[in-house]
Design goal:
Layout: E1 3-5, H1 7-17, E2 20-23, H2 27-32, E3 34-35, E4 39-40, E5 44-47, E6 50-53, H3 57-64, E7 72-75, H4 81-91, E8 97-100, E9 107-108, E10 114-116, E11 126-127, H5 136-140
C-alpha cells in the first residue's frame, strides 16, 4: 500500500529528507502554479483529442530519475492522478515513493466541498512558470 501524506508532510520530506517533488499535472496546470522546486512530468496529456494517458510518462521519469531508489513525492491537483502515477512507477521498480494527498488544489468530497487543503491553500513555497530544467519540455528531451 502506498504511503500517503498531507502537504505539510510532503514539504517536510522534500526539505529535510531529500525527496524530489514530482508534479504530474498538465503543463498548463503546472505553469499556473506549483510547489517550488517541483519537477513536471504529466500523467495525462491534454491535446486536440482531449485527455489521454501520457505514453512517455515512465520513460521521462526514468530519464530524470534513473536510480529506482530515488525518493519521490508525487503530487497532482487533488491526489488522484498522482496515486495512479505512483502505481505505474512502482510497477517499474521504484521503491521510495510517497503520494501527496490533497495535491495542489485540495481534496474534495462528492459534493465539491473542500475536505483537506492542498499545497496552494496552505501557503507552502510556490512558483509559477515552466520551471526551467525541471519543466516537462526540458525533461522530455533527455
Amino acid at each position: 500500500m502506498a504511503r500517503r501524506v498531507g502537504p505539510e508532510e510532503a514539504h517536510r520530506l522534500v526539505v529535510e529528507e531529500g525527496y524530489a517533488l514530482l508534479d504530474v499535472r498538465s503543463v498548463v496546470e503546472f505553469e499556473a502554479g506549483h510547489p517550488e522546486g517541483a519537477w513536471n512530468v504529466p500523467w495525462v496529456i491534454l491535446d486536440e483529442h482531449g485527455r489521454r494517458p501520457n505514453p512517455d510518462f515512465v520513460r521521462v521519469v526514468q530519464a530524470a530519475f534513473p536510480d529506482r531508489a530515488t525518493k519521490l513525492v508525487l503530487s497532482c491537483l487533488a491526489g488522484h492522478r498522482s496515486l495512479e502515477a505512483l502505481h505505474a512507477l512502482e510497477a517499474e521498480g521504484y521503491t521510495a515513493l510517497v503520494d501527496q494527498r490533497a495535491g495542489w488544489g485540495g481534496e474534495r468530497d462528492a459534493f465539491g466541498q473542500l475536505t483537506e487543503k492542498g499545497w496552494s491553500q496552505r501557503g507552502l513555497p510556490s512558483a509559477t512558470g515552466a520551471g526551467d530544467e525541471r519543466s516537462y519540455a526540458a525533461l522530455s528531451r533527455r
